[in-house]
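Can you make up a protein sequence with its backbone structure tokens?

===
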Amino acid sequence: MIPSDIRLYTWVDVEEVLLRKQKQNEWPNGLVWARTYWDGLTMGIRPGTQAEAHDWLSEIYDPRFRNNYIILESVDENQRILPIWWEETEEDPPTPRLTPSLSRPGVLFPPSENVEPPAIMPSDFPPVVAFHSFKGGVGRTTHAIALAKALTAKKQTVLLVDGDLEAPGISWLFERRLPYPPVSFADLLALVHGDESPHYETAIQLVSDRLQNALIDGIFILPSFRSTSGFTSLEIRPEHLIQGSKNAFILTDILARLGKYLGVNVVLVDLPAGLSELATGLILDPRVYRIFVTTLSGQSIAGTARVLELIGERSPSTREEDPFPALIFSQVPEDKKFTDWVIEPEQQLLEAAKTFIEDNGDILRVITPFADSLLVLPPTWEEVMSKLERSGIVDAVSPLLDWLPSPSGASIPESLPSLSLKYQRQQIKELAEKLVYAETAQIDNFWATIPLKQLASDHRRQLPITVVVGAKGSGKTYTFMQIIRRQNWEKFVQETGETVTNNALIAPILSSNNLEDNAKKIVENVQRETAKILMFSHPKSSNDIRDYIRQNQTGKLHEGQWRECWLDVIAWGVGFKPEEAGAGRKLTDHLFKNKQQLIVVIDGLEDLFQNFDNDENQQKALRALLQEVPEWLAQQPGRPLGIIIFVRRDIVLAAVRQNAAQMMARYQPYALKWNRQEALRLVVWVTKKALPDFNINLDKLPNMSEEEITDTLVPLWGKKLGSEKSKEARSVQFVLAALSDFNGQIQSRDLVRFLKIAADKSMNDTRWQDRILIPKAIRDALPECSKEKIKEIQTENTALKKIFAKLQKLADANRKIPFSREAAQLSTEEIKTLLDNGVVIQEKDDYYMPEIFRYGLNFGLIGRARPRVLSLARRAAGQSS
């Protein structure tokens, strides 16, 4: 049947039907080729297969097919037809090759997966970067110049080519600075067209020689023409070179060779706007670093989407070395950067590009600000550069520097050349394994995160009376153990890099039930040592304290009674008047009179109050501990007794029903939350502790920028999840996005567990010699990390446990991402719980799940959908900002 959107007016429409069948891989086996023209349709077929081909044509051109012709659109009195001719042949169809053209091929051959790509660019050739836009006026030329400036700021040299032969932009900017350019892009095309030397060396050498006189601020300028009078007289065009050469991608090759002759690091080409044959020689070359510039206007987005679809149809990136394109959203108001203004268009473009973006790949997206000063560019190069720097666009395009391969001659820094990779992997695995569970207490040092530094800095003179909030896996028990190991506040504060004027003793009162024997002994020893120094008798054990609190849970105490209960527990836990009622009130007086200072530390509340979400007595007990005890202690003269309480966020929200947000805000500086930079600093710290010779000074780590930390971690996991020139995602971005929930939270336990598993899975690899953790191991570590996280959540979060159990019981067909609320059989309240906890994100009527949850809940992907790790992480970041 003829597609509904096609009308057979001419042979072009007849050919369109064949083209669609070719794309859909629906050609009969006996059809070798097909050729259409105004005088007929000729079918090249294998001997004896005419009947099969005849039936196929009858089906696809129904109801306009006849035995030897196809009926075209006509008026009744003048019927028009297209004859059909049959030609038997024994020839094999040629191996198809990519051709940079938007025009139809003269002959249609059967669809083939073995499309011959262009030759891989030699490693010593500079990358060719092409700027393209569907519409003019979106800032394409401006951004090409901005990237050139950003590159030269990094001491790289650039060849900047004005490839817009219809409406030159760069050429105008240099007219005053370079009024008589020595050579032009038009000259290069004409010289190459008539050059018979191997690889056009004669022409390229001549142009390279002349360009030595066109070097400005580290940029070689190749204008479109040598004078404005030449704009209308272009005899040799890019398509002429392509048509007359055996190399369909000659344009890329000659520009790369010219760049090599000049010794530049990057070749930048500003292309004409629209779907022009002037641009296709580069934008359909999968080796080219293609940058598509668009505003947020509907026409510009729709046109850019169509360009990406054409790339997917005609020139997909199939090799690891072929880079994915990049997108620049230009002229975006500052207050719209992380809103649906950008998110929706971005998703539209990613959808258009899905045919050639594989799993874990991602298109780099850059947002540049609206700058009214650049709406009309000044006439001189110097003024343009000055305005560009002030606009912020040069800084905004800096992520493109990481997207491009390192300059020729540069190399990824070695990690520890004196040690074998297997040894390095083993050391990281062993240390990370010890860190995964703080309950083992095998590690006696810690990384001083910003919250811990703030906790220490804010309490250099006064004792801390604070609640430290954190999710399971955020490091509560680990931090609890590190604090009590120091036995006094002065030592702990000093190890965070701060100074302190008090040496208050530290005593654990309650600890996690899950502590292993070694950790329990540490807790007991510190408890006894502190009691001994204070000259108190035998402290009450954690087990006895827990039993006492459980007994009181049946008595229906009010908050005031629970406060007294907690104060007594604190006194008994340090050995002061054990079993005596009212000991807690007397303890502070005793400490004050004897000029003693004490800090008690509490952890493991989730073990003691397992029904906190619906048991009113437990909620009162927790409310008294979290609110009334700190308030009472803060009022004591001299504040001789401090307290640090480690607690989960969901417990706080359940227990403190009124003013919970106010309380959380009060202690927010000390909350155990891991942002991107702190997560990366933790990775560096773990690596340095495992490998003392790792090239990083931990003293400088707190002040390093994210970019500097990222560079430091290249020896650990490479720049990308593949070779540096591959189209794979950047390692840092992928790891952080894959381990984060949709609230932008990443837990330290997940990160450390990931390092342990990835190191283990990298152990016996011999291929990757430039990094410790290999790409496959990084990807393969995610399922195990996710499964362990789900298990842990199900032990701590009752609400999520019930929903997770429901999701795990779904039929396989319903456990697919994206999913609808109805397919997942979830109530509105259950979906809200998942959204609040960062387990899902909503996109129209569909819901997506981050990788750290998806694997553990055994959710697959619909069809050939790819895990949108980075794009969904960006959407989540935008919604939470």
Summary: The mean pLDDT is 85. The first strand starts at residue 31 and ends at 37. The chain has four domains: 1-116, 131-401, 450-670, 676-880. The radius of gyration is 34 Å.
